[in-house]
Write a structure and sequence with these properties.
alpha/beta, 3-stranded mixed sheet, 11 helices
Length: 322
């Protein structure tokens, strides 16, 4: 007789990360995926979350739900970013503890690290210096999520894990003209410029900051891989450094180089103009990913191929938004 399938809840399944995790988990015939749309479950409301978890018997939880955005959004809505993210993670993690969930994976962000962290950034550099001011409220909420998982493990023995991805891009990204991250914003801007036969495209900042980017399908593989490790395998590895694991590509490029690559992928033939009146953000952010690589995971998708796949997704699913 075959054993029952494990019940897996993906919080944030409609977002870029959550939908990628869902696609990856669909390859596992032993996983029964449970989801709830925002109009069915408001994760910022404690009573709704506790009731939802009480009606199910989840074996695993992927906490990919979050309020996210780029520099402009973080600067404009700081209260929304810290409050909503604190509420989401607090409610889901406590509900997982109360209902004895076997494993939980919390998804954070590389912005948790100090603005001037030594490069590449390893897990132990958490809380070693001031954060980037433009996204400090969001970063503080994500740090709190890591510490929630760590504290429940210390006090209750809960197997609540944390993964810190670098900058992400790929299918399901947000292409809003103001509230998106750099790659989707530039894909949209270059596409519109090509369509309108524009002579140039304006890019925020000097173009000199360096960034690392990871294709979201690679992150999904990493998440499922981390959750597939036994409790002993995971915690024996991470407790040598910290309680969370960096997930990145392992290389970074300047924003100018990234913009030039996107311009070529999209087919825009005009000039790139850098608006130095706009903020650059953190000067460099490259994650040290030796820990996850020592656990047996490697990324597969280089930036050029990932951008080509992302632009195809934009053309197929997001062009109507322009």
């Amino acid at each position: 007789m075959s054993s029952a399938k494990k019940k897996v809840f993906i919080a944030g399944h409609q977002g870029m990360v959550g939908s990628a995790i869902s696609r990856e988990l669909q390859k596992d015939s032993n996983a029964e995926i449970i989801t709830a749309a925002r109009n069915e479950l408001d994760l910022t409301q404690q009573n709704e979350v506790f009731d939802f978890f009480g009606k199910h018997n989840f074996d695993e939880v992927y906490l990919a739900a979050a309020k996210v955005g780029g520099i402009h959004a973080n600067n404009t809505y700081p209260a929304d970013f810290i409050y909503q993210n604190l509420m989401i993670e607090s409610h889901v993690i406590e509900a997982s503890h109360r209902t004895s969930v076997n494993k939980l994976l919390f998804l954070g962000s590389s912005c948790i690290y100090p603005k001037h962290a030594k490069q590449p950034i390893n897990e132990k550099q958490l809380l070693e210096g001031p954060l980037e001011p433009t996204n400090e409220p969001y970063a503080l909420a994500k740090i709190a999520g890591i510490k929630l998982c760590e504290s429940y493990h210390r006090q209750h023995g809960s197997d609540f894990r944390s993964a810190m991805p670098t900058n992400l891009y790929g299918p399901g990204d947000n292409y809003h003209p103001e509230n998106s991250h750099v790659i989707p914003a530039l894909i949209r801007r270059f596409h519109e410029a090509k369509t309108n036969n524009s002579k140039s495209v304006s890019i925020w900042g000097t173009g000199t900051p360096k960034r690392e980017f990871l294709y979201v399908e690679d992150l999904a593989r990493a998440c499922v891989y981390l959750m597939g490790l036994s409790k002993e395998e995971y915690w024996n590895h991470v407790e040598k450094r910290c309680s969370h694991v960096n997930v990145g590509f392992g290389e970074d490029l300047s924003i100018a180089e990234v913009a030039s690559t996107i311009s070529n992928v999209v087919g825009f033939k005009g000039e790139l103009e850098f608006d130095t009146s706009k903020p650059d953000g953190t000067p460099r952010k490259l994650l040290d990913c030796r820990l996850i690589k020592s656990m047996g995971w490697e990324p597969k998708t280089n930036l050029k191929r990932g951008l080509a796949l992302s632009y195809k997704d934009f053309q197929n699913n997001h062009i109507r938004e322009c």
